[in-house]
């Protein structure tokens, strides 16, 4: 079944069966040392709410994830990669450890995932690794090591136009896509992605036969023939020496095979397909890859699916699909836009896996990734997340509501671990200093103590149109699953309208 997984693709891939996918496209973070913000766009004239970090693209050797304790040679050895290749990575690792530990961390992160992708791919399958010049040269050696140099097919240069930015070097206006296959016998539908013949070429088919078909005459390339293999041979030769010429019919031409450089526009500010996801790729790019390297009914897998460009292209081209992303926003965005657009029904035509459906699953998410737990909890209660880098201390998100003709916010704090009355006192402090915030909400996994509720009650009430609302409210994850919601005068709903931009409506 088509599946959208929320979570780390390494964990997910390790649970997927061997040789189960036909095509993999991956567009991982590029080691570019930046974080990408997802802007909640507000087009109603109300104040702009938060920005949330879609994902972070920075790497460190002391990054504490367990998988980074493995080193590249060990990973490769375990997966049965040739001894000399393992040896090469031994030296490389030693050198990078000193010279560039961040790059090494990134390469380990990629290697441990790429060996899994190799395991998942069917013998006729292909993999396209999308990267940029920051690390593409290192990634190519890793791909050679895992998939085999003999299975390298192309280094595709995706060129795009946008304003040049530098006066110190040439404008960097391309990405690199490394195309490998699992074996030498693989799906490649060059005709499906061929370019139409140019007008100039079409004009050359100037002769018309008895059935009205257009053709040009070519020499047969016979040794000693005066016309050899020349093209556009005069028609008189057909009458005098038909054995020396052959008809080349226009309607038998499929098109021109694509080169390894592709000029495809990036998604500009006003493009209809734009969803506001920071690294969204154009559908045309994915269409070309999917049409060329898979057939109808094949399984296409995108382990870093972002806002789901691969998924939409797979749907349009009648392929099965599996997508995976570690950011909850990505999963929500795909559901709210792409999946909604095609009216796929949850549980029948696709399923979502990994979004907590119970307190235990929420606890698991918290243990895996506390930030994703925060994002999940804030959004689950209808809020907007705060960017963790720029966040004010103690504010993980905001709920917006309308009162007195204005937009007000309720600040949200999320705690996955142990909780105590001092957390509520701190939140009260945040509320006092926050201009415009009328209320504060506290979300927790553990059950609060009586003293915490008393502390919250001590903050008093906000009154609007004769109704009192507790200034500090507490919601446990258990209560959220039971359907309990924040008590506010009105709800502000965030939704995506035309083009997928987030809008606020009251
Ligand atoms: C460059 S974006 C992909 C954009 C995508 N091609 C599109 O068109 O929208 C990379 C994505 O990988 C996700 N990501 C990063 N690390 C991940 C991991 N370990 N497992 C799953 N997804 C991850 C990020 O959240 C981000 O959405």
Task: Give an account of the 3D structure.
This protein is elongated. Helix 3 runs antiparallel to helix 4, helix 8 crosses helix 9 (309-316) and helix 13 (421-433) packs parallel to helix 14. By secondary structure, it is of the alpha/beta class. It has a nine-stranded mixed beta sheet with strand order 11-6-7-5-2-12-13-1-14, with helices on both faces. Strands 15-16-17-18-21 form a five-stranded mixed beta sheet, sandwiched between helices. The chain has a three-stranded antiparallel beta sheet with strand order 8-9-10, with no helix packed on it. Helices cover 30% and strands 25% of the residues. Bound molecules: S-adenosylmethionine. S-adenosylmethionine binds at residues 8-9, 27-29, 54-55, 277, 279-281, 304, 306-307, 309, 324-327, 330.
Gist?
With 506 residues, the protein is α/β, with parallel strands linked by helices. It contains 15 helices and 23 strands.
Mean pLDDT: 87
> Number of folding domains?
3
Q: What is the CATH domain class of the largest domain?
A: Alpha Beta
Subunit organisation of the chains: single chain
For the record, what is the CATH homologous superfamily label of the largest domain?
Vaccinia Virus protein VP39
Q: Compute the separation of the termini in Å.
A: 37 Å
Structural class label: alpha/beta
Strand order of the largest sheet: 11-6-7-5-2-12-13-1-14
CATH domain fold name of the largest domain: Rossmann fold
Q: What Rg is obtained from the alpha carbons, in whole angstroms? A: 29 Å
